Amino acid sequence: MKLKILKKQNNARRCFVCGVDNNEGLKTEFYELEDGTLAATAVAHPFHQSYPGRVHGGVSTALLDETIGRAINITEPETWGVTVEITTRFKKPVPYDVPLLVIGRITENRSRLFSGEGRLILPDGTTAVTASARYMKLKLTDIAEFDGTVDTWELFPREGDPAALDLPDEK
Ligand SMILES: CCCCCCCCCCCCCC(=O)SCCNC(=O)CCNC(=O)[C@H](O)C(C)(C)COP(=O)(O)OP(=O)(O)OC[C@H]1O[C@@H](n2cnc3c(N)ncnc32)[C@H](O)[C@@H]1OP(=O)(O)O
């Protein structure tokens, strides 16, 4: 199903998942879709491997963690949270050097905790990894040593940013 992108989210600079200056990271981009899903696009590299030919499960988990955690910002742009639990199910190997799509949704939102689920989808539409996670809401100043210079939080628009994304049915 093709879904319109309503908004691109900010990126950090050094974050392993979204840091635009982190050349060992994933440089993931996050897009809010019209149906309330958060979609993330990324390419993993050979230096993210576990066994040769497959991406480390911890890397896939990190992608899912941040995608689910950021999905809260669709309705609450000022909410920040830390992951308190994540459960991941690895169904297929994830290869590097191919475009990966990750989607996340919030399933429960309470005053102190929120939960969500997500899946990592391969270019052929297969779901390779699923996850569910829970986060505790905290003030940004209680989470981050944020000086606003090296570690910024900004929108990095790109000419290649898509206007819509095709979400395959679950398989
Ligand atoms: C600006 C720059 C931005 C950079 C980029 C950002 C990208 C965004 C990335 C986003 C994605 C990436 C995100 C990341 O990678 S976040 C990094 C990974 N996660 C962490 O570092 C979290 C580490 N843990 C902690 O700091 C503490 O444990 C916290 C602060 C969470 C709680 O310690 P604290 O000592 O304060 O609290 P407490 O232990 O007394 O518990 C307090 C209450 O909470 C309840 N409780 C606790 N745990 C759970 C649980 N699992 N399920 C249900 N309930 C739970 C507990 O029962 C109690 O309830 P009650 O008895 O009071 O009723």
TrEMBL record:
Q: Name one GO biological process term.
A: fatty acid metabolic process
Enzyme class, UniProt record, top EC level: hydrolase
Membrane-protein topology: Peripheral membrane protein
Its GO CC terms? cytoplasm; membrane
Q: Which reaction does it catalyse?
A: octanoyl-CoA + H2O = octanoate + CoA + H(+); hexadecanoyl-CoA + H2O = hexadecanoate + CoA + H(+); tetradecanoyl-CoA + H2O = tetradecanoate + CoA + H(+); decanoyl-CoA + H2O = decanoate + CoA + H(+)
Gene3D superfamilies noted in UniProt: Hotdog Thioesterase (3.10.129.10)
Keywords, sorted A to Z? Apoptosis, Cell membrane, Cell projection, Cytoplasm, Fatty acid metabolism, Hydrolase, Lipid metabolism, Membrane, Transit peptide
Residues covered by the Thioesterase domain: 53-127
Q: Name one Pfam family in it.
A: 4HBT
Q: Which CDD domains match?
A: PaaI_thioesterase (cd03443)
Q: What is its main location?
A: membrane
Instruction: Say yes or no: keyword DNA repair present.
Output: no
InterPro entries given for it? Answer: HotDog_dom_sf, THEM4/THEM5_acyl-CoA_thioest, Thioestr_dom
Superkingdom, according to UniProt? Bacteria
Where can this protein be found?
Cell projection, Ruffle membrane; Cytoplasm; Membrane
Q: EC number(s) per UniProt?
A: 3.1.2.2
Write out the GO MF terms: hydrolase activity
Q: Which family does it belong to?
A: Belongs to the THEM4/THEM5 thioesterase family.
Annotated protein name in UniProt: Acyl-coenzyme A thioesterase THEM4
